[in-house]
Specification:
Layout: H1 2-13, E1 26-31, E2 36-40, H2 53-63, E3 69-75, H3 86-94, E4 101-105, E5 111-115, H4 116-119
Parallel strand pairs: 3-4
Antiparallel strand pairs: 1-2, 1-3, 4-5
């Protein structure tokens, strides 16, 4: 499944709309329904209105009826790993356990793995809000 996610993230990356930053990112996740959902970043001239690849993939997952992330892959356009921004870390945490794998890949095939809990150790969750 990990290879399938890597391929989907790299494919999604090719469709990114990044005319301002030229920094195309792709993301793919395996959901609790066993399906793969993917997305790319979509920039906007009004910068705050852009959307990250991770958010696009999560939105696709939700609209199709899945409810949680089993693992997620994020594809960087450079040789430097592309860690999710703070907002995306929180978005991922909304639908994943702290132990959920987050795999970062580069165009030349390098990868590293971390977890949601390592990326966002004290993130807000539904249970922390009660």
């Amino acid at each position: 499944m990990l290879e399938k996610l890597k391929s989907a993230a790299l494919n999604a990356q090719q469709h990114a709309y990044a005319p301002y930053s030229k920094f195309k990112v792709g993301a793919a996740l395996e959901a609790n329904d066993g399906n793969v959902y993917f997305g790319c970043n979509v920039e906007n001239a009004a910068y705050p209105l852009g959307q990250c690849a991770e958010a696009t993939a999560i939105g696709s997952m939700i609209v199709q009826g899945a409810t949680s992330i089993k693992q997620i892959v994020i594809a960087s356009p450079t040789e430097t790993y592309c860690y999710p921004c703070g907002g995306c870390r929180q978005k991922i945490a909304e639908f994943a356990d702290k132990s959920t794998p987050v795999v970062l890949i580069t165009p030349d095939g390098k990868s590293i793995s971390t977890t949601v809990g390592e990326l966002l150790p004290e993130g807000f969750t539904l249970t922390s809000q009660r």
